[in-house]
Amino acid sequence: MTRVLLTGFEPFDGERTNPSWQAVRAAAAEPPAGLDLRTAELPCVFGEAARALRSAVAAHRPDVVICVGQAGGRPDVTVERVAINLDDARIPDNAGAAPIDEPVVPGGPAAYFSTLPVKACVAAVRAAGLPASVSHTAGTFVCNHVFYALAHLIATELPALRGGFVHVPYAPEQVTGRAQPSLPVETVARALREIAATAATTREDLRLPGGATH
Which residues are known catalytic residues? Predict the structure, then answer.
């Protein structure tokens, strides 16, 4: 059994729900064959989120980590390729902090690439009839903060671990009365199962064009 840790976030920015955590729980409730899916909910707080991720990795000892967050406005499931060493908050986090031009890890590299086969993951989701694409920006809010923290942990302490980040759209109940794209949580959960299965079994990524900066 390959152990995969899926993480999602608590609600933020006044929302009552966060589809990343909803979808992570739904995906883990029906794991793909051969996978042991573990879950952890992260706080939407700079610093605390990275510490919670580290604790979850230590507790579950996964082979693969897939962190998941909400990217309202995106129409599909986006597998992130790059984490950057920058906290630059457009809005305050859930503790009221809004860092500007601060590094995630002082003295750390400017960026890390995901160690997941991002294009193969996208291809698997699309083959299942679900919308997905490669993203070249995870933003500069808590999602990117966690992605970079994970990548730095892998690069400096846990080289056998593989991990990356996935952004998901709003859930339908979040966009009532708003002209914003959304996907049902169960659709996102199906996509996460495909990504987890592909990440667990695929080491070499596909050499295909693709990716957007949104």
Answer: 80, 143, 167
